[in-house]
Amino acid sequence: PSIIVKDRPDLIQCFDPATGRSLGQVRATTVEELQDKINRARKAQAVWALTSFEQRRQVLRTLNEFVLAHQREICQVACRDSGKTLIDATLGEVLTTSAKLQWTIKNGEKALQDDERDPGFMMMYKRARVVYQPRGVVSALVSWNYPFHNTIGPVISAIFSGNAIVVKASEHVAWSMPYWEQMIKRALNVCGHDPELVQFVTGFADVGNALTSSPDIDHITFIGSPEVGKLVMKSASANLTPVTLELGGKDCAIVFSDADLSQCIPVLMRGVIQNASQNCIGIERILVQDKIYEKFVNEMARRIKAVRVGSILDDEPNQVDCGAMVLSNCFGRLEALIADAVSKGARCLVGGHAYTHPKHPKGQYFEPTLLVDVTPEMDITRNETFGPIMVLMKFADEQDALNKVHSSPYGLGSSVFSGDRARGSRVALKLRTGMTNVNDFGVNYICQSLPFGGVGISGFGRFAGPEGLRALCVEKAFTEDRLPFIKTPIPPIVDYPIQNTEKGYQFTQQIWGSNPRGLVPTRT
Question: What is the dihedral of CA 497, 501, 504, 505, to 10 degrees?
Fold first, then answer.
């Protein structure tokens, strides 16, 4: 189904990906309206910046209480807009958002407190610190795979750090945006603050371009593809607007022969099947040591064959494991990647094609797929699939595994499974990724104390953790006199206009003495 309404560029047609049914139409924001929203956010932020951390915590506590009290409703809305299952919505939308709220409530103030620094010997009479001040009006352009979590997460960090925020969600999940916006604005309002602090916009590329190129935006967070991320950087460069880019991944899981398969296999099934693998840190490559490879293949084939796809609207929604795909135009690309791998020696044991659901023929489904005997020269190892495709690769030893993992230009998340704790840590720390987990997957969404982001074409910058909050602040270097009667003097010999340059030079040279390393200061 097309989201474009013929002859009505001001409207977005919304569909349920799991059924193909219309959810209605949402009005697209115009470029003129975007500027008005930025102006209103700027006005509200001038007041909000003066609030205390306790006032900001009150807003987040109010929001978290609402989320927990209405989590089923939130999940149902997210499911209709993105086609996921209720379990996937609970884990990926509600649990992750509540974890971020709770971490920020508990730890946000500590992360943004002034950071006292050692002024050094020469400046021992000074106090030095870093002060974290809000940037002003920040923006977030977020992807469609988790409409609630991806939208609310940037809002939490922005408002707690004293900023206003303009959020542009993907037009593919525009239907749910008014609900999320109303939720945030009411939380602000009931706590006595201006709801204009948070602005939501929906629309197409013209609105996105206007937002990223606006001189009135002080920071940009973008979640999407490397190709679009480069366009965002180019647009932001017109005003040298700082950006944080999270551009997806080709996350690996390395499974050694001594791994606990009874724990490892269920975790990796969720890493591939959850949200139809439309996850930034979904498991897209599983490298299995040759000693257990055939056993692993057989067990995964049994499990993948049993996965059931469908909608929360099915007569028996309790028998649905895997939801729909948000984008209908990805199936040809996925089938081509699988065909390329098979032509180069891989075996497709399960699935491999778009799926026509008997009850929802207009739904957007892809068969849960198992592709084995995959090697690094196959296109599927270097391109993010964002679909329910389990890719299995064989490796011999640690170095072989590392070589195969690093054949991909992505570097977001990673996992290592081993019964040898030392080896698990050793290999995990050698991986060229922004995040890594030993004997687990995806905990970076829940462990909010850690920064979230990648390397390579997975992007740069971090959100979540103290680093994420501080990224939305100006890190101001601040000094002041420790005692009011001790100030920096300018000796007459180097006071302008300088009377004798050579004597002045000899004087300054002796400040640190003749020691070439400058380690031992001398008296002058």
Answer: 140
Which residues pair with residue 350 across a beta bridge?
Answer: 370
Q: Where are the beta strands (DSSP E) in 189-300?
A: 198-201, 219-223, 243-246, 252-255, 285-289
Report the C-alpha gap between 82 and 172 in whole angstroms: 8
The radius of gyration computed from the CA coordinates of the chain, to the nearest angstrom, equals 27
Cα separation, 383 vs 338, whole angstroms: 11
Q: What letter would DSSP give residue 345?
A: T
Token pair belonging to 257? 């022969």
Q: State whether residue 447 is helix, strand or coil.
A: coil
Cα atoms found within 13 Å of the Cα of residue 261, Cβ hemisphere only: 14
Flag whether pLDDT at 316 surpasses 80.
Answer: no
Rounded to whole angstroms, the Cα distance separating 136 from 138 reads: 6
Which has the closest alpha carbon to 394: 304, 301, 285? 285
> Residue 389: helix, strand or coil by DSSP?
strand
Could you tell me which residues come within 8 angstroms of residue 176 by beta carbon, excluding any fewer than 6 positions away?
77, 78, 80, 81, 147, 148
List all residues 6 or more positions away from 495 whose beta carbon is below 8 Å from its beta carbon: none
Q: Rounded to an integer, what is the distance from CA 392 to the centroid of its chain?
A: 26
β-strand 437-438 against 11-15: which pairing, if any? Answer: unpaired
Query: Phi/psi at 167 (nearest 5 deg)?
Result: -110, 125
pLDDT digits (tens, 9 = 90+) for 179-195: 999 999 999 999 999 99
**CA angle 297–391–418, rounded 5-degree value:** 65
In one letter, which amino acid is 24?
G
Angle at 305 between CA 303 and CA 309, to 5 degrees: 105
User: Looking at this protein, which amino acid is placed at residue 150?
Assistant: N
pTM of the model: 0.94
Amino acid at 411: G
Q: How confident is the model at residue 317 (pLDDT cuts 50, 70, 90)?
A: low
| Band (313; pLDDT cuts 50, 70, 90) | confident
Other Cβ atoms less than 10 A from the Cβ of 501: the count is 9
What is d(CA 493, CA 507) in angstroms, rounded to the nearest whole number? 8
C-alpha angle 251-257-260 in degrees, rounded to nearest 5:
80
How far apart are alpha carbons 394 and 397 in whole angstroms? Answer: 10
Which residues form the catalytic set?
246, 280
Looking at residue 524, its pLDDT comes to 38
- Beta-ladder partners of 168: 141, 201
Evaluate whether 325 touches 354 at the Cβ level (below 8 Å). Answer: no
Residue with tokens 């799926």: 355
Query: 329 near 4, Cβ under 8 Å?
Result: no
Strands (E), 376-499: 389-395, 410-411, 414-417, 437-438, 455-456, 459-460, 473-481
- Distance, in Å, from the CA atom of 412 to the CA atom of 453, rounded to the nearest integer, reads 6
Strand partners, 433: none
- Facing residues of 411 across strands? 455
DSSP-assigned letters across all residues of 265-288: HHHHHHHHHGGGG--TT---EEEE
